[in-house]
Design goal:
By secondary structure, this protein is α+β, with helices and mostly antiparallel strands. Helix content is 18%, strand content 30%. Strands 37-38-40-39-41-42-43-44 form an eight-stranded mixed β-sheet, with helices on both faces. Strand 33 and strand 34 form a beta hairpin. Helix 3 packs across helix 4.
Length: 806
């Protein structure tokens, strides 16, 4: 660990690498045992994590947001990069704040950013701040052209700004019929125009006046651009204007597409005193993604042309043809539908070069088994001749990852992208028209790449040393990779305006996200914040031991977090609790501050009471490459359960665990897995707590479920093999089900359905705890306490921890 003096206390007490620990050791501090009330209390007692953070314009200080104690308000703080005491940004200074994710002009002398939905430009030479917009509309997506033109988006409209010239609308796009378009054939109209000359003459004059006005509008730079009419039978999904404001790429989908039946979620405890209903998501297979179309618009002329997607490699092949035939469904007619979106729509799927000459577009098949990155190079006056050129094609028999889809351009026009084609996410570069070549390689992952100020060096988050050890890395165009940090738990980072330093947001097992700064060339990191309360810092915590467990089916080591006493009593066998993280594709065995920080404190409490605890990154988890992620395809709950059985056996052989006194618990996907463990392997786990659990995957959403199990109509066998409700007859052990009644992610209905099934099966030793004012993630300390009181009582009553250690 390389941290300067102000972080020495952190380094000595809280940031020791768990990977090097021989056994789970307590962190030095107050030895007062954690209580359930304290562990489940409002996390304000821990201290607020540093949330969003960014550089001040001069690179001498950084700004960041912290939650105000006892409130929902986020204040902004500032601290010098040399260290010192952070200061609260007062009301009078907020108008001069910078913001996250600035974009720099070609000379890196100006930065544009979005603050409170408005566009600002900061002169990095003088510090002068120019407010470009001030509106209720939320502006976004600023981009500079190579000659200093700034374009940005407001809704589906695009604007441009240039120093000294102000702001003007750059493109006008309407999902309407073109009022000047020739009407459909109509015999009566044609007869009238043929027989009544005056009508024909008036019509000709109106058309001539319209054409003259359009010509004047196109030639007059003081007027708004000519509107482009897309038609009234579609919906505009996304747009991207070239930075020279000459071209617009438009993504559309059918306007009146069938959306499927939405769920109606009841709410019983309400401010009004009446029962209320909230419209929630549709189920998997009831709202298949619509195919989208891609258009190129010549802004000056208002003309448009659809870009054909038929040439995408593999677009005509149905990877689900065998399943479709088995289900006696009609084969696909023609090419598969395609969508233009990246990472679930959270990141732009279109990137223009700064000279406006070429755009790169990310496209996905609606079944999410193919991804293409293609480019289009328009020619003025020949909008109809533009075509897509595929630069990279990625296929996955299971599903394309929603992450690792970043791409963009270097200043000299090379295309860069992330791809899992090797089995792990790595960075590729395509010079000119050449095929992409790998800049990084190995059994580790590249994420969140950022191009450095020199235009040739990429910075990114990496886990080269170990799947859960995250650092900031850099690579040049020759493929020379170096680690910039040695913090173990990097969350994210931002380069300084001059590119010389890196602001790092990092964390550790008992350290909520904090800030440090390090030179872009590497070296010692200077810690800038420590927002923990004295009470939390003084606590004695068990540092989890990172362990590798052999997989019985040869899939590779299963990484886990082990919590146990510092010294084992000779000959004693300890009861076991196994924790299952949520989301499926999530990583919890890492050096970062866990999403499950309350559960981590609960694991400390369990160890105090005489248990050992194991938390696994089972198959399907993030951080271990494509094969680990897709191992659950069409069989959710099978390989993951085997991983937990292997973990239990390992505990018995290596950690004095009493495998006959084992319990399991988890929320969301962890609740689903608790069901699978108790239902499919009765007697192995004597007790389980399933929190906000999925019981029937046909009730879950399309975006997540269809990737892994396809759809119920197409692949009923996958749903039969993966839904716990199908195996409920196997329950013989103690089961607690806990669910928020306003859960709009995994519906409360899931638990109600399973309760009825268990009633019909005449099962005993189970209970359902309901929480009227909680959604998927609980937010009230009373609910957290009640839920974990029940979990603790379940384990104490069934696993029978020795009373001497209570």
């Amino acid at each position: 660990m390389r941290l300067t003096s102000i972080a020495l206390a952190l380094a000595l007490g809280f940031l020791t690498s768990a990977a090097t620990a021989a056994t789970a050791q307590p962190v030095a501090g107050n030895a007062t045992p954690i209580t359930l009330e304290q562990a489940m209390a409002d996390p304000d007692w821990i201290g607020p994590p540093v949330e969003q953070a960014w550089w001040a314009w001069d690179g001498r200080s950084v700004q960041y947001n912290l939650k105000r104690d006892g409130e929902l308000i986020r204040d902004t703080w500032q601290v010098a990069i040399s260290g010192g005491t952070p200061t609260l940004v007062d009301e009078s200074s907020r108008a001069q704040l910078d913001a996250a994710d600035p974009v720099f002009d070609a000379r890196r002398t100006r930065a544009a950013f979005v603050r409170n939905g408005d566009i600002f430009v900061r002169d990095l030479r003088s510090g002068a701040l120019t407010q470009v917009t001030r509106s209720e509309e939320a502006e976004s997506r600023p981009q500079w052209s190579h000659d200093g033109n700034l374009v940005f988006r407001a809704g589906n409209d695009w604007y441009q700004w240039r120093a000294g010239q102000g702001t003007s609308q750059a493109a006008v796009l309407k999902a309407e019929k073109d009022p000047a378009a020739e009407p459909k054939d109509d015999d009566l109209r044609d007869r009238q125009l043929r027989l009544i000359q005056t009508l024909a003459d008036d019509r000709a004059k109106r058309e001539a006046a319209r054409e003259q006005n359009l010509a004047w509008q196109a030639a007059d730079p003081t007027r708004a651009p000519i509107a482009t009419y897309m038609g009234d039978d579609l919906r505009i999904v996304d747009t991207a204007l070239s930075p020279d404001a000459r071209w617009l790429l438009v993504v559309t989908e059918p306007k009146n597409a069938e959306n499927g039946q939405a769920g109606k979620m009841p709410k019983y405890v309400t401010e009004s005193g009446y029962e209320e209903f909230e419209e929630a998501r549709t189920r998997v297979g009831r709202k298949a993604p619509q195919g989208q179309r891609l258009w190129l618009v010549d802004v000056a002329g208002g003309t448009r042309s659809e870009l054909s997607l038929k040439g995408l490699p593999g677009i005509g092949k149905d990877p689900l043809a065998d399943l479709r035939a088995k289900a006696k469904l009609k084969p696909l007619d023609g090419n598969r539908d395609v969508r233009v979106e990246s990472e679930g729509g959270r990141r732009p799927a279109i990137h223009w070069r700064d000279d406006g000459s070429t755009a790169a577009v990310l496209l996905r098949a609606v079944d999410n088994k193919d991804r293409w990155i293609a480019t289009v190079t328009p020619t003025r006056g020949r909008v109809e001749s533009a075509a897509l050129s595929v630069r990279h094609h990625l296929h996955d028999d299971a599903w394309i990852n929603w992450g690792f889809n970043d791409f963009g351009w270097t200043p000299d026009g090379a295309l860069w992208l992330l791809s899992e084609q090797s089995g792990y996410s790595h960075l590729y570069l395509a010079d000119g028209n050449a095929a992409p070549r790998a800049l990084t390689s190995g059994r580790w992952e590249v994420s969140s790449p950022v191009l450095g100020a020199d235009g040739t060096t990429f910075y990114f988050t990496c886990n080269r040393q170990r799947p859960g050890d995250y650092e900031v890395c850099a690579v040049d165009r020759s493929g020379n990779v170096r680690e910039i940090t040695a913090l173990d738990g990097v969350e994210n980072f931002a380069l300084s305006p001059d590119g010389g330093k890196v602001l790092v947001r990092y964390s550790a097992s008992y350290l909520p996200p904090q800030l440090a700064v390090v030179d872009a060339g590497g070296g010692e990191a200077t810690a800038l914040t420590d927002t923990r309360t004295p009470e939390f810092k003084a606590r004695q915590w068990i540092q989890p031991e990172m362990v590798q467990i052999p997989s019985s089916d040869g899939a590779g080591p299963i990484w886990g977090k082990y919590y146990g006493p510092a010294t084992m009593e000779p000959g004693r066998r300890y009861p076991v609790v196994m924790f299952v993280h949520g989301a499926g594709y999530l990583q919890n065995v890492h050096d970062r501050y866990p999403v499950y920080f309350r559960e981590q404190m609960f694991h400390n409490l369990l160890v105090q009471r005489g248990y050992v605890v194991l938390d696994l990154d089972y198959r399907g988890s993030e951080g271990y490459g494509r094969n680990w992620r897709t191992a659950i395809y069409r069989r959710m709950g099978t390989p993951e359960l085997q991983d937990y059985l292997d973990g239990l056996a390992w505990l018995g052989a290596n950690k004095q665990a009493d495998v006959d006194r084992a319990g399991i618990y988890g929320g969301s996907y962890g609740g689903f897995m608790t069901f699978m463990a108790l239902f499919k392997k009765p007697g192995v786990f004597k007790a389980g707590a399933a929190l906000r659990p999925v019981t029937d995957w046909s009730q879950y959403n399309h975006e997540y479920t269809s990737n892994i199990l396809n759809t119920p109509e197409l692949d009923p066998e996958a749903y039969l093999a993966s839904s716990p409700i199908e195996f409920a007859d196997g329950l013989q052990d103690h089961l607690l089900i806990a669910h928020g009644m306003m859960d709009n992610n995994v519906f409360y209905k899931d638990s109600v359905m399973l309760a009825q099934r268990l009633i019909e099966l005449r099962k005993d030793k189970w209970e359902l705890a309901s929480y009227p004012l909680e959604r998927h993630g609980f937010v009230h300390a009373d609910s957290w306490y009640d839920e974990y009181r029940r979990i603790l009582e379940l384990f104490e009553d069934t696993l029978r921890a020795p009373s001497a250690v209570r």
